[in-house]
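User: quick one, fold this
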Amino acid sequence: MLLDVTRVAVQPDFTLLLEFENGERRSFDMACYLDQKPWARLKTCNAFMGAFVENGTVVWPGNIDIDPETLYERSVPFSDQKPAE
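Assistant:
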């Protein structure tokens, strides 16, 4: 199932709080990806915190992104709060 990401809230512990087009809110832990290319460039909190939504997925400056299917399939539901834009 391909669902676009509509909002992301970046957390300093390298997790992404995501909202998808179907209204689901999910949490995705990026920590295990940060030793792999191209995400290794995001290991500093400042770089990681630059995430934003573009074209239905999460992207970072420097042409770094992650597949929205991966974000959905490997995330877990949460309901604490709505991610900020």
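User: anything notable?
Assistant: The first strand starts at residue 5 and ends at 10.
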